Please model this.
Amino acid sequence: MSDLLLVLQVAVQAAFVLLAVATLADWFRHRDGRRSYLALAFGSLATIIVFSPAFTTGGTLGRVLTDTGLVLFLLSGYALLMFRDSFIPLGRVTQRAITIAIVVVAALGVAAGLPADPKQPHGPFQSLALTAVLVTWSLCVLEPSFRFWQASRRRPAVESARLRALTVGYAALVVEVLVGGLPGELTRNDSLVVLMDVVRVAIVPLLYISFSPPTWLRRVWRQPEEDAFRNALHDLLLYSPDRATLAQRALGWVTRLVGGVGALIVDSDGTILAARDLTVDQAAEVTATRNAPPPRGGPRRQLREPRLLVIPLHLQQGEGAMIILAGRFTPLFGDEEELRLRQYASSIAAGLDRELLTQRIASLEKAKTEFLNVASHELRGPMTVIKGYLTMLESGSLGDLSPRSMAVLPLLIAKSDEVDWMVEQMVEASRLEDGRLELKKQPADVAELTQRAIDGMRSLLTNHEVRFDMPSRAIHAEVDHRFQIVVRNLLSNAAKYSPARGCITVRVSQNGGARVAVTDEGIGIADENQARLFTRFVRIENQSTQHISGTGLGLWLSREIARMHDGDLTVESMPGRGSTFTLQLPLNQ
Ligand code: ADP
Model:
């Protein structure tokens, strides 16, 4: 049994030394005031535990060691209280009173000449001094434990878990110390001593985890929020109407991720894009100080100064920044949270860049629409004049032309019809864009309207054979005069995108609705391009189409008109074999 006791005692010592070394190394890596308090507390406790067997050597050395142990013990309590103070500051008076109380209790303990072994019988003054030491130390540790627990309520998941871990850590320390200093009667029972030592060894890793939680534990803590975070990020990036709103929404999660009290996003040109929980003046002040050196006045002052966490935003136009004003508990977050924040920052930067791009595209689109509007109206007048005179020349009302001039007239008329047709498409497209395209539907025979549309396009169809497959009975539907624009567009495309002398078939039928199908034997359209055809300004550019002129507006306009009639326009096509565009409209009830 005594061997086991010895092993356990060494294990307790080893565990504490490891804990002290780990905390010291942590402090050495980061060199901040808070970690120095932890290093001091655990270093003192480890020293006491390691040197405690030497306390019993007796004589002056034993006395000096015992008194040093006593002072170190109280020092560890003081350091743990100061660790709490660095997050939740104590009042100046309270702090002074505590310091004096600790010094007085330490002096009392030294004066009482406490025996090296706390389990030895004590005189009344010694008992009083020992009680004062233990009570003072316990208060220094239990009070923070309670405070951290209180502060953990109503906080974001990681912050709250981290504060609770500290609560547990502080409470575990009290258990550790009290178990180590149990009264003499209990420590005569060997099995109980074994049990106590096992508990003491087991508490050490718990202490380490509580004060420096490992990455995996932080991830576990974050898990409940992770889904909400992902969804929020998704919504944020997809549905923010502009950059300022996106930045404003993003800040909500920024402060939540690291428990900041305020945050702002600075654009690449230095302007403040969004600020949260900060007034305009505060935001400007924070931005101005972001590059300033850290505050002077020693580590204690620095601990109390509000710290800034600056995360760069790599934007396309230059470097912006996400600045977080650290809250009381922000330092509880470690590298892991900061890394997460950096990942978040790169998503936000991508989102902000995309918004900028969307804004640019929107203004380009607007410019296109405006150009369409102006160009179509400006072209329309001169075209009417040109066409009018060409028709007069053809009819001879302007006098006789030479046979050579007469020969080129049909071509001139066909070309002017082509331009006229393009201008008409542009005018209607710009009306549609501006929401000015209103249909005036009237009952009509679809077959007759289709025939009229073909007749209106004759000059453009001279190189093709047009077959018209018409039903014997009229097909009645409610249509606007723009129905003809759709049919003419399909005919003009069939002619443009099929070789001369090819056959174009126009089939009008009644099949659950009025249906006009225009089939050509042209170049056809690959499957992957078929869905894009009906988009504004989209043209399928390839070797067979590059020499054919067009605006990319016809099919988009035609499908919109079909849909405004509660119908649709669809395509079936095979490259190299030809295409069939089908316009379907509801019948007149
Ligand atoms: P465009 O003025 O370019 O003809 P459209 O909107 O009418 O504009 O057509 C869009 C694109 O669809 C055309 O650029 C062409 O590539 C393709 N397309 C349209 N009709 C046909 C067709 N009958 N056969 C092959 N390709 C066609």
User: Anything to note?
Assistant: The two ends are 102 Å apart (CA to CA). Residues 525 and 575 are 5 Å apart (CA to CA).
